[in-house]
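Researcher: Good morning. I'm working through a list of sequences from a screen, and I'd like to move beyond sequence-only analysis. For each chain I'm collecting a predicted structure so we can compare shapes side by side. This is the next one on the list. No need for commentary yet; just the structure.
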Amino acid sequence: MGHILKGRSDRFRYPQGVKLDQANDRVFLPKLGWLRYRNSREVLGTVKNVTASLSGGKWFISIQTERHVAEPVHPASSMVGIDMGIIRFATLSDGTFVAPLNGFKRHQDRLRKAQQSMSRKQKFSHNGKKARARVQRIHTRIGATRRDFLHKTTTATGHAAGHVSQNHAIVCLEDLPVRNMAQSAAGTTEKPGRNVRAKSGLNKSILDQGGFEFRRPLDYKLAWNGGWLVAGPPHYTSRTCPCCGHISADNRKTQAQFACVECGFKDNADLVGAINILSRGMHMLRDEGQDTADASAGWDTTARIACEVSGAVMPPAAGTRRSDLGAAQCRALAP
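Model: Good morning. Structure tokens for this chain:
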């Protein structure tokens, strides 16, 4: 057994001697004997080791196996861009979107009361341990609901805009520095920050979405299905017009609405960001020598997606025709 540090790292691993009886939902652990467990999924392959861990007052086992699988081939040939946000958790370039869960926000009041109660208890007392366990259970529930939401969103259960890893061979995301985005704005005594309270609330909302954790399961699930995950630069995705390529902060005067000051194109700002992310992902793949012709023909196709899917029509005063948009204009998007 591995080393156990009580109260801080309640987990240990069995590298050998484990027996698994899936038909009867039992597992044999050395020195503990046969134990019943709740079988959440079928275990495939040869069992190599088992890790038991304590979380939120419950014990879990993680079973690592070894098996050989054929190289997967994705059944779809489509590409999609995804823009991550707060009001909309994920907006796809095909126009669909996923509403956020806001798991922490739902349990925030309950967690605050539990933490206040714990702060009034004497440390290491019996009541203090019970209060601490209540706080841990709430944190465990928040984490469990967030993971459940992310897994359902990245696969095919529970969301109209789900099926991401199964319905699209290539998914393009922004390479967002979540840690930098959620940094504190408090500053120092000499240089205090501005709008600290508002920035604190924004940081909570950013972290509550689990944006980076969304990327991690999506990456390996696409690999399981034979797909690819492309992470592109996030610069100016919501300020760039997908029809004419004009980049300006004036294009997005509100959080939700995009209106190009050059050609007059209008649409939801998150959808525009998703289309621009898709365009960057396609060009990154072409720069690497990948053939993306089956998914899209380039900038002109991306512009038609932007202008035609939403039903928008570019005004004649813009002096730009969709059919004349060339690949050279796409380079204005790339940093």
